[in-house]
Amino acid sequence: MRWIVWCSCLLVLFACSGEKKKEEVSIHPSVKAETMVIEPVTLPRVRSFPGHVRSKVSITLAAKMPGYVKQVPVQIGDMVHKGDLLVLMDDTDAKARVRALVSAKKAALAELHAASAEYEYSRINFDRFSRLYRQESATKDEFDRARTSYTAMKNKVMAIKANIRRIEAQLREARNQLLYVRIEAPVDGWVSERHADPGTYINPGHPLIGLDGRGSGFWFEADVDEALYTLVKPGGMVSLSIPSANMSLQARTVHVQRSSRPLSHTFTILVDLGRADLKSGLFGRVFLDTGSTQAIVVPLPAVVKRGGITGVYSVDKSGTIKWRLIKTGREWRKTSSGYMPVLAVLSGQAAPVQKWVSVLSGLSPGDRIVISNLSEMREGLHLE
Description:
Elongation Factor Tu (Ef-tu), domain 3, five-stranded antiparallel β-sheet, 24 strands, 37% strand
């Protein structure tokens, strides 16, 4: 009898305990937050291609005379003004050639003076024998000798004059070479290249200094896949990102190369950057819109990382919060005309007002996710 009483007591206790646990389980902590229902949106298909900034005026100054480099007073990146000295050549050989040609001209002039006197005498003698021969007072042999002497002196004077003209031409060239000893900046700009150092012997045509014109503006040059040839037209707008210059902008295409490169299967485009304060060679990317696609996007602040795992808080039909793993793709900014890709994360630039991220997997249309009060979210909480 006592055993039956004890069993009855235990059953009552277990029943009370079960009801208490059931009551505890049924009571969930609740939280308030905003949610959104996932719906597919239209996103542009974007392809990016690397490129670089290029000055609209790019000048390469080359040597026009052989010799040794005496002085290069500029370095790459220096700002120079029109007329500033860039390279000074050794003028020893050029000056020696000028002196030699001046001496040769003086000698030729002295020779011409002497030959001119002999020529004048031979001309007078020839005229005299011509009269005597017509009067039959001179023989045919005397007349022929006078004519031959006159013709020879005439040709000699002409040859000396031709030699003087040749020396004068060489002298002008040698004096012009003295002008090439000083290589000066033809425009205001920046030194972009330097190919010679003091003491280097160079030949004519050897590049010395590269110069980017100041105030002329810049182009962005990129090689684009030839499959997109029909999509890129002169005058069309493209998106650009130049991270090192903290620039993200849209600009107009001014040139599209008519032929493609057979090895790389690309063609070159030039995009007008205007007169922005840039430098040649800066790396960037051009983004081309190649169509559109349907995709899922969520607000970037709604994406939470836990232990290196990316996910969002979703809400089921009963209002229970659940953690959903997702795989994200490109970031987007929402504008009045639709979604545009976030071209780069630029230092010092404020984040877009609305920043979104595409979801490649983990969510489906119709799912509901939490977009606010994420710091209070926990899996298993109940949404009010």
